[in-house]
């Protein structure tokens, strides 16, 4: 896929994720946002806090990599490394397999407030800004350290796609948590 189409697709997905947060999660009360479907499950706020923790790591690295790009690069196809393909497969929402998260990225049983939503929206704005700036960058350059093993590097394009897919996966998880609370109570007489 060429760079322009790739970035345009990611921008549309990031914007859609922002819209979901604004329309589906912002109007909810604290009890609904903190509801857990079961003891080991995450609440809506825990799903979003998990994403905030990843954004706190990856967004500064993406910004530095884009700032380090001295001259615009001509359009070229986006390529994937073995590491990139594995990372993307791991977080792809189509992959229903559950994965254990790193301890410091796991917000389970955290005391969270609606500030999590505000922070997520700020991260989305930053991500959208970086995606716009990426049109001049070499998306095939290995520049972004992998969070769990910083010696490994992802390509710039892979890191953008990783963030978007990871967010999509956990936003869908948060939507599933919310779904039972949307069901009207029925009384059986």
TrEMBL record:
Name under which the protein is recorded: DinB family protein
Pfam families, per the entry: DinB_2
Superkingdom of the organism of origin: Bacteria
DinB-like domain: residues covered: 24-174
First and last residue of the signal peptide: none
């Amino acid at each position: 896929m060429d760079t322009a189409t790739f970035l345009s697709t990611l921008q549309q997905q990031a914007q859609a994720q922002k819209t979901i947060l604004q329309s589906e999660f912002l109007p909810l009360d604290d009890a609904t946002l903190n509801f857990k479907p079961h003891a080991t499950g995450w609440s809506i706020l825990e799903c979003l806090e998990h994403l905030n923790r990843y954004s706190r790591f990856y967004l500064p690295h993406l910004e530095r990599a884009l700032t380090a790009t001295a001259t615009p690069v001509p359009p070229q196809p986006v390529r994937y490394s073995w590491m990139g393909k594995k990372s993307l497969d791991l977080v792809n929402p189509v992959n229903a397999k559950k994965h254990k998260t790193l301890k410091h990225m796991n917000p389970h049983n955290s005391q969270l407030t609606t500030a999590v939503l505000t922070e997520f929206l700020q991260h989305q704005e930053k991500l959208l800004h970086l995606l716009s700036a990426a049109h001049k960058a070499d998306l095939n350059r290995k520049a972004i350290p992998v969070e769990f093993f910083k010696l490994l590097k992802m390509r710039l394009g892979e890191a953008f796609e990783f963030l978007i897919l990871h967010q999509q996966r956990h936003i869908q998880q948060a939507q599933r948590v919310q779904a039972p609370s949307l069901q009207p109570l029925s009384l059986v007489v």
